[in-house]
Amino acid sequence: MNNKLIKKLFLITAILVAVILFAWGMESFWLTQQNDVVDQIRTDDKIFDYRHLLSGQLQDSDEQDYFTVAVMLDNAYNLPYNAGLDEAHIVYEALVEANITRLLAIFDSKTKLDKIGPVRSARNYFMDWAEEYSGVYMHVGGSPQALRVINDYDFVNIDQIGAGEIYFWRDDNLIAPHNVFTSFSNILRIGEIKDVPNIKQDFSFWNFVNEEAVEDLVNFSINISNSYYKIDWKFNHSLGYYQRWQGGDKKVTHTGKQVRANNIIIQEVEMFFIDEERRGIDAESGGKVTIFNHLGQQNGIWQKKNGRTVFVNEEGNELKLVPGVTWVEIVDNLANLSKIVE
After folding, report:
1. What is the dihedral sign for C-alpha 221, 222, 228, 234?
2. pTM of the predicted model, to two decimals?
């Protein structure tokens, strides 16, 4: 074999080896890139395994660097507005005296609001629910029964009547006692001065799920006491949540926003009178419950477990909530609940 032929074969071989090596390198690069994408998808899936402990909203870490804030709010039927109510994660509504209701709004300390209120007085059963979240409980005085035991509760007690007055102000455009307000700048001051701890990482949050909405959703009414407190919840399909009417009127905040909820929990409790006018509510013993959200209607029972109210079905599995705002409507009889027929 002559030298020219040998050189030609060597050149062809070298070219073939180079092509094979290049192809192998490109395949390895492509597989590496594919694996990176798969890993990123897996990482993304893992990132959103965490939830905000109050709202159930997905978040990218398990860090819960906030404390909870429970504020007693007015709900008089002739109240012109509530400030900040639309930004609460959880709201409890229950009867007090004279067949009116009050509200307990649960926020986290990272919420930014310049006005929350009107703030009203404490009652034992609202304190029972506030204690489930620890954190801060804000109010203006309270019933004699509540004030006798309030310092036994596991929260930082901030009463506008007394040393806590610095964290509130009065709006002179409104009539007392419906004119006391607070803000999150004041709440952050409380956190610093009182050294309020962040919410516990082992806090028992409710069973939030991300599932598609069902088609047939129910609009319903709750007759809590009288026509002023006939509460209508109607599902807005374009917005994807329930909206609230009270006494036939839209329930709005001082910004004009209609109050909304992603979950409405109707919790049946035993109610009784503890004096000539004030009610007591058994927030411990359990009872029936009905939940409405975009998954439809669920029925079950509520129980108090390890200091936390939970909602379960007949098999003991927790009922499903969807991420967002939750209202807990406290009633003495689920028969007060009825469907709205349009």
Report:
1. negative
2. 0.86
| 169-189 tens-digit pLDDT | 999 999 999 999 999 999 999
Residues 239 and 330 in one domain: yes
The token pair at 38 is 């798969």
The domain in which residue 80 lies consists of 59-193
DSSP code at position 166: G
Residues 107 and 179 grouped into a single domain: yes
Same domain, 333 and 225: yes
Cα–Cα distance between 117 and 160 in angstroms, integer? 12
Tell me the CA distances in angstroms from 50 to 89, 101, 209, 310, one per residue in order: 17, 35, 12, 20
Rounded Cα gap, residues 99 and 246, in angstroms = 14
Q: What is the DSSP string of 16-68?
A: HHHHHHHHHHHHHHHHHHHHHHHHHHHHHHHHTTEE-TTT--EESSS-----E
The total number of structural domains that make up the chain: 3
326 with 90: CB under 8 angstroms?
A: yes
**Residue 133, both tokens:** 């979240």
> Does 198 map to a domain?
no
Same domain assignment for residues 98 and 156: yes
Q: What is residue 10's three-state secondary structure?
A: helix
Q: Classify the C-alpha dihedral 254-250-178-190 as positive or negative.
A: negative
Other CB atoms within 10 A of residue 319 CB = 22
Same domain, 268 and 155: no
All residues at 6 or more sequence positions from 305 whose CB lies less than 8 Å from its CB, including other chains: 204
Rounded to the nearest 5 degrees, what angle is found at the Cα of 278, between the Cα atoms of 263 and 283?
40
Query: How many whole angstroms separate alpha carbon 259 and alpha carbon 105?
Result: 12
* Element spanning 69, H or E: strand 68-73
Q: Residue 72, SS3?
A: strand
- C-alpha 91/C-alpha 133 separation (Å) is 12
pLDDT < 70 stretches in the chain: 1-48
Q: What is the pLDDT of residue 39?
A: 32
